[in-house]
Structure formats: C-alpha cells, structure tokens
Amino acid sequence: MTDAPAQAPGEWPLVSVIMPTRGRPELVRESIAAVVAQTYPGQIECLVVHDQERPDTELTRLGTPQREVKVAANTHSPGLAGARNTGLDAARGVIIATCDDDDVWHPDKLASQVERLEREPGLLVVGSGIRLRLPGKVVEWPGRAEHISYQLLLRNRVKELHSSTLVMRREAFAKVGPYDEKLPRGYAEDYDWVLRAARAGQIGIVTRPLADIRKDGRSWYAGGAENAALALEYMLAKHPDIRASPRGHARMLGQIAFARSALGERGPAIRYATKAAMRWPISPYPYIAFVHAATRIHPRHLLRAARLFRRGMA
Predict the structure, then answer these.
(1) What's 15's domain CATH number?
(2) In this structure, are strands 15-21 and 44-50 parallel, antiparallel, or unpaired?
(3) DSSP strand pairing (44-50 vs 104-105)
(4) Residue range(s) defining the domain that contains residue 113
(5) How many domains, the chain?
C-alpha cells in the first residue's frame, strides 16, 4: 500500500461513493461492505441509487459513523447515467468515487487514490489497475501507465478507467458536465465521461490492481446487442476525434459490426467490419465480427475467445 500522508482524520476530504444498483440484493451488499472496510482515514458516504426498483432501506444498517450508507431512488432518466447523476445531486464530498454494484474494492483503494490526487493537484481523475473475475479464473490487469493521454483514450478503451476504479475531484464535473443520459440505457457512459474529462484536464492511474471487476455474471446494465450498437454509433457521432485515430475507429466499428451480427443484421455487420478492416488492417475486432457473421455461433464463445487476447467487444 502507498503510504498515506500524515494527516488527522478530520483533514482528509469527505469522499462520496456513488453506487447504482438494480436487481442485485446480495452482490450490492458485498460491494457496500468493501466500501465500508476501506482503510481511508477520512469519512466516506456511500450513496446507493436504486434504478427502476424500490430503495432497500435495510442497506443503511451496513454503515458506520465514519462510513454512512444512504439509499435513494433514481430521479433522472432510467439507466446508469441517470442513476449516477442522481448520486451526484446528493453527494456532499469534495471527492467523488463510483463503484458498480457487482464489483469489489480492495481495502487500500481510496487511501491510495486520494493520496495521488493530493500529491498531484493537476489531476482531475485517478483510476487504478484491476483484477478481472472471469468465468473460472481471475486475471490481473495492472495499470499500463501513471498518466493517460486523450490520444490513448481515442484508440483504446483503457480498462483501468472502469467506472468502479474512478476517483474524481468534484470540480471535474463542473468542467466536464454530468453523465450523458442520452446514451441508450447508459451504455458506455463511463467511457464517454472519461473522454470528455481527458480534454478538460489530466488523468492518472495507480497502477496496482485496486478493484475486482466481475465479468462472470449477468449485468442489468451491460445491455444487449441492440444497446451496444446504438450506443457505439452514438459515441462515434458525439466524439468525431475517434475517427481521426485509425486504430480507435477500427475498434469501435468492429464492435458495432459484432453487435449488428449478434442482432442477425448480417449485411450491416459485414459493411461495418469491412470498413473497420480498411481503417486498421491488423485490428482483431473486424475479424471477430466476420467470424460471427459467417458462422452464427453463439456470441458468448467469441467473447471468451476475445478475452484470451485481452480484447473486449463492448
């Protein structure tokens, strides 16, 4: 663990943790417990935002005087983006962190990342390395660099900037704006926000894995192929700079091609995949889409194969 600066507990900033949830009464308790167990010396408020379901007031019993747990209903648009914005409305902290309701923080996560923000005043956002919980195994995914550029984010999703790793100065939202509720079902809302943040300020990463990210179960928010296709097409229109990056453009076009193929739209899938291969011929994404369009095997088999090469199709 990174040594924290010698500050009294009252001098550490209040951290507001925003945790959207839906339909995961057991998993969300595990996520909350990891927030409550943080070694961070300051106070933490954990804001659990129930999306399209009744708030479970019993969750507040999981808190402590230094780790208050609050529950609320999503008052914005249904979906992840609206739930996160509901949490922002209620947050009191000068530091904002986000965590999904199926992911688990390591005990020293907040202390390490807040220390990094204190040490580097120019940083708006800090992510971290992760551990991916895949079916039957766990994969370590350390941070690739201490600082992440806008150009890198255009060509690569950067998994270390997953929504469950992000710790942000509250002022970042004044510069960047809230989460985009126009994205279909909030799909890729964290990537959209981080892209905007990278234009507004600096982004850092604590390279050690500090959060376990579940990729071994069902997600209400992962959406289906239709959500993926619509959201990624929206992202390409909203962020034209992605088109200026051949590798990044090919990645997103290939992901759209795969989603369209999963929907049974073979013609559009092949057109997207062909365009992706022309943009960046060595990109694996269009060829994964071509294989699916040709074989029609279940998408989950190709998703597993893609993960072997550390690639995600969404």
Answers:
(1) 3.90.550.10
(2) parallel
(3) unpaired
(4) 9-214
(5) 2
Cβ neighbours of residue 229 closer than 8 Å, sequence gap 6 or more:
256, 259, 260, 263
Burial (Cβ within 10 Å: 0-12, 13-18, ≥19) of residue 226:
middle
* pLDDT digit string (tens) for the chain, length 314 residues: 333 434 444 589 999 999 999 999 999 999 999 999 999 999 999 999 999 999 999 999 999 999 999 999 999 999 999 999 999 999 999 999 999 999 999 999 999 999 999 999 999 999 999 999 988 889 999 999 999 999 999 999 999 999 999 999 999 999 999 999 999 878 899 999 999 999 999 999 999 999 999 987 655 344 578 889 999 999 999 999 999 999 999 999 999 999 999 999 999 999 999 999 999 999 999 999 999 899 988 766 566 655 555 555 45
Which of 214, 235, 263 delimits the end of a domain? Answer: 214
Question: Of all residues in the chain, what percent are helix, strand and coil, respectively (each to 5)?
Answer: 45, 20, 35
